[in-house]
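Course assignment 3, question 2. Fill in each field.
Student: A.L.
Task: Predict the tertiary structure for the chain below.
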Amino acid sequence: MEFSNLLIQWYLQNKRDLPWRNTTNPYHIWLSEIMLQQTRVAQGLPYFLSFTGSFPTVFDLANANEEQVLKLWQGLGYYSRARNLHNTAKLVAYDLNGIFPDNYKDLLQLKGVGEYTAAAIASFSYNEVVPVVDGNVFRVLSRYFDIETDIASSGAKKEFSELAKELIPHDNPALFNQAIMEFGALQCVPKNPDCERCVLNSGCLALQKNKVGQLPVKLKKTKVRNRYFNYLVFSDDNQHYILRKRTEKGIWHNLYEFPLIETVAEVDFDAVSKLIFEEYGSKFKILSIKPLKNDAILHKLSHQHLYIRFFQVHIQGVAENAISYESMISLPFPIVIHNFIEKDLL
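Answer field:
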């Protein structure tokens, strides 16, 4: 079909040289696909290189401890991906003798591997004829074929997968899948694509109908919740710091942070000071409290906006289980706290 041929020709001339494209090793392809979920290639590439350097094989990753994995993942976000990655590495290494499943159906059984990731590994590693459908593919197909289906709706994935199955060449499914994803990433971009120089412009229905900016359709809006975090940077006579591990479910599970007072709205210094004395005044002799930044840091997550402030709290004596700055910086933190520690703490 002309669509597939033009797409593949464009890809061979324009593709980026990326390390996971120069291999059929399922371990490397799996790593890259997990990392690139919700993440741009430019951001994910250094993490891929760090992980493959630190953990050259799935056995190396399986044998690492979780804190090592989370520390290397620090800043990439969506930390459940890292925990699932580690658990799946253990399963593949210990239960499957280091051998990844060689087909789409069995790959789907791995934790953290959904339809898209299973299709990517199956086609790129084993050349299975199964289409990948991600945000780039939704965009390319919806525009070229003028599909107004809401891509957030329950039936959208099946509809676009069926269409992609008709288009995918059976002699080289991996090349087609790479091509359509790359085309969406580089050419058929979300905003202001260069349609004049597009190899598919003669057949693109959205371009003919002046609908490029309207497609794909996505009606479901993400509800965003505001949260207000007041971090307490306790330091004792040894200039050691108190930390806690977030063991509860939710954001930043198993990462470290300073003791936290969460409030329902942003509160002033006097209110925070009062809360600190109420909660910690019986545990420590508090010598002084001061804000370490004047304004709250806005940290945006997919479903939450966090307004974060840091307060330095000097306490008398030596605090139990407090640790040095040098020990602290080796631990995995949410990136917003890591940046504060590196830039503003000392």
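Instructor remarks: The first helix runs from residue 2 to 14. The chain has a mean pLDDT of 95.
Grade: pending
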